[in-house]
Write a structure and sequence with these properties.
Strand content: 35-45%
Shape: elongated
Structural class: mainly beta
Order of helices and strands: EEEHEEEEEEEEEEHEEEEHH
Helix content: 10-25%
Distance between the termini: 31 Å
Number of strands: 17
Strand order of the largest sheet: 12-13-17-16
Length: about 280
Amino acid sequence: IFGGGFGGFGGFGGGGGPRRVKGSSLRIKVKLTLEDIANGVEKKVKVKRKMQASGVTYKTCNTCNGSGQVMRVQNTILGRMQTSSPCPTCQGSGQILDHKPQGADADGMITSEETVSIKIPAGVSDGIQLKVSGKGNDAPGANSIPGDLIVVIEEIEHEFLKREGENIHYDLYLNIADAALGGSKEVDTVNGKVRIKIEEGIQSGKILRLKGKGLPSLNGYGNGDFLIHINVWTPKKLSKEQKDFFEKMKEDENFIPHPQKGDKSFFEKVKEMFS
């Protein structure tokens, strides 16, 4: 499905006969959301492409007599050398324009708009190119073949979710009460809402991993993970009653930090996340 570069009129066949001329490729961008990427999507796009006009006809090239090749004889120190090259009149196709319908250009082509359906697989990423064969420009000649349509994927940045390969990161903010008491929270993923459990006394910086809830691999190697980063929100403004409460709690045993030996540092958490 991956497209390569572009060419004008590329040839096929080579050697000693007329070649099939291929039309030039076209290039478009298609914007996708993370939801589109997670599930795969079919997009319909309008493409302006050159097509052979209805009623156009071609005839055998008089220069090469339809062979597509012209022969040249050169005198060298080794004697007379005969070489062949594509005919400059018909560009190697062996045909030239015979009848040009009204409205067609000098090559018998018209520009027409066509709606093209593009099936985009799940797991693509920004900048990937997909090729839709035969939906580029036509080329002159009865035996020519159309070029390709190159589709460049442009990923729309999500408001809350951040992509890292097949993994997705999400910042979940908890107030002090929720962090202390625990409970549950509903989180939006690329495949719908999920409810997660918040343990009592959860700490800022903890990462909750939802296995397989990330994006699918384009190569079919399973799904990435959905990583929830816990951030305990500290209020910036407090009422008098709230200030009084926290003043009382400052020396309370439960409010004094007591990191456990098993509690991982920030750098250990980052290392574990990427291991």
